[in-house]
Amino acid sequence: MDYCDWCNLSEEDKRFQVYESKSWFVFLSDEQDYVGRCILVLKRHCNSMSELTDEEWDELRNLVCKVEACLKAVLGAALCNWSCLMNHFYKEEAPDPHLHIHVRPRYDKPIMMNGRIYADSEFGHHYALHKSGVMPEEDREEVFLRLKEWLNR
Ligand SMILES: [Zn+2]
Question: What total of structural domains would you count in the chain?
Fold first, then answer.
């Protein structure tokens, strides 16, 4: 798909890739409103979960287990909020979404990183859409390295 950004990821886009399976990429999200937030992107162009092949579903199941275990072990997440939304593609006249899935780890205790404290103040509730505060590059890099190392052990 020439026009699809997700089919044409640059090396720069892949800078924060923490894991890769046969059919999926896992990236640390640009947005770290929830520490360790990641995005799973199917490598082939596909519009929805209902169009996944059996093999892609099997891999996704394994990835969900692996990524959840990682976020719990490495960052102390209490649970994970998974979502497949893709709403922004439908602002286009002819929507042709590229399947991706967000995972937001949720925390019942604050996380400490390089002397900074990150708290999930909405714990027990729906994730916030517009959380204030931007994670410094140093902390994002540390989260990236820790997740990548755990997932590729
Ligand atoms: Zn695509």
Answer: 1
Q: Determine the distance separating the centroid of ligand 1 and the alpha carbon of 23, expressed in angstroms.
A: 13
**Ligand 1 center to 114 CA (angstroms):** 37
pLDDT: which is higher, 150 or 131: 150
Its domain, for residue 66, covers: 5-151
CA of 14 to the centre of ligand 1 (A): 15
Give residue 46 CA to ligand 1 midpoint distance, Å: 7
Q: Is residue 59's pLDDT more than 90?
A: yes
Q: Quick one: pLDDT at residue 131?
A: 81
How close is the Cα of 55 to the center of ligand 1, in Å?
Answer: 19
Query: What is the Å distance from ligand 1's center to 87 Cα?
Result: 15
What is the band of 3 on the pLDDT scale with cuts at 50, 70, 90?
confident
What's residue 41's pLDDT? Answer: 98
pLDDT mean across residues, the chain: 95
Buried b (16+ CB within 10 A) or exposed e, 45-81: ebeeeeebeeebeebbeebeeebbebbeebbebeebe
CB 150 within 8 A of CB 67: no
Q: Which two tokens stand for residue 59?
A: 């891999």
CATH of residue 127's domain is: 3.30.428.10
